[in-house]
Design brief:
The chain is an alpha/beta fold and 350 residues long. The chain folds into two domains: 89 residues, Aspartate Aminotransferase, domain 1 (Alpha-Beta Complex), CATH 3.90.1150; 237 residues, 3-Layer(aba) Sandwich (Aspartate Aminotransferase, domain 2), CATH 3.40.640.10. The structure holds pyridoxal-5'-phosphate. This is Aminotransferase class I/II-fold pyridoxal phosphate-dependent enzyme. Keywords: Aminotransferase, Lyase, Pyridoxal phosphate, Transferase.
Length: 350
Amino acid sequence: MTSPPAGPPVDLRSDTVTRPDARMREAMARAEVGDDVLDGDPTMRALEEEIARLLGTEDALWVPSGSMGNLIALCVHLERGDRFLAPDRAHILDHEVGTAAWLAGGMPRALPWTAGPGAPSPSDITRAVAHGGPYFALRDRLLCLENTHNAAGGTVTAPREHRRLTDAAHDAGLLVHLDGARLWNAAVALGVPPADLAEGADSVQVCLSKGLGAPVGSVLAGGTEFVREARRVRKMLGGGVRQGGILAAAGLVALERVERLAEDHDHARLLAAGLAERGWETTTPQTNIVMLPVDDPRHTVAVLAARGVLTVPTDAGVRMITHCDVSRHDVLRAVESFPPPGARPAGRRP
Ligand SMILES: *Cc1c(COP(=O)(O)O)cnc(C)c1O
C-alpha cells in the first residue's frame, strides 16, 4: 500500500466548512448596521432586496440557518395535522430533527424518486393528494421541493421539470416550498438565472453559508404577505438578530461568488473521474457532491480519515462535497490518498 501524500487533511465533509476570507471579514467589520428587530438594519435590507431580485420574489427575509428558513416556511404554510409532501430523503424529512412535525405540526409523506435520483414526477404528486376523502383524512397542504437534492448526490431539477412539479402541486391545491440550500449550484450547473428555478414556488429558502462561503445565514423569499408572517415566526423562534448587518455583509460578498461554483463542479467531476480510474464506483456528479456507494460507509470514512481525506457516511455510502477551500491540487491529493482497488477496505467492485 502506498502511503498517503503528506499535508493537511482534505476536508470534503461539506461545503459548510468554508471559512470567511479576508475580503469577507473586512466587509463584515465595515458593515453599516441598525437594529433589525426594532426597525431595520440597512445591510440586512440590502441583502434581502438583492436576493428577492435574484429569485424574482416580492420580498425576502434573512434567517440564521437553512433549517430555520425551512421551519419558518412550514410554520407559515401548515396548520396542525396538515400533510406535506417531499421527495424521499429530503433534508426537511431526515435532517431537521423532525421540526416539521413537532413545531410546524406537519405530517410528512415521502414521494418516490420516479423521475430520477431525488426527483418525483408530477403524477406522484397528483396521486399522493387525497381528494374528497372522509372527514378523518389528512389535508394535503404543501409540496416541499429540494434543488439540488443533497442526499441524492447534488442532483439538479431543470426549470421545465420544476415547472411541471409546481403546476401539478398547484393543480392539486397545494402550496409549494422550495428548499434551495444549493439552488445556486443548480443555477450555475444549468446556466440559468436562479429565478428560473424559483418560479411557481410560494416560498424559497437559499443558503449563503454553503458553497458561497458565508459563515452564517440563509434567506427565505416569497410574497409580501408570506414574508410579513415569516418575520413574526422568525421572532417566535428566537431568530431575530439586532446588528445583523455584520452577518448580512458576509452574505452580500457571498453573492459575488455564485459563478465560481462552476469550479467546485469541475473539481467534483475531477474527483469522481480520478476515483473511477482507481477502480471505485462513484456517481457522476451534476454539481459539487460525489457519492461513493459502499457497503460499510462508516468504516470507509474512518479509513479515509486516517489517510487525510475527510468525508461523511450516509445511508447510501460515502459523501464528498467540493467547495471554495478545496483546490484542484487538494482534489488530486485526495484521489492519491484513496487506497488502491485491491487494498480497498470496503465497497463494491465495479
Ligand atoms: C444544509 C441544508 C439545509 C439546512 O441548512 P443549515 O443552515 O445547515 O440549517 C437545508 N436543506 C438542504 C438541502 C441542505 O443541504
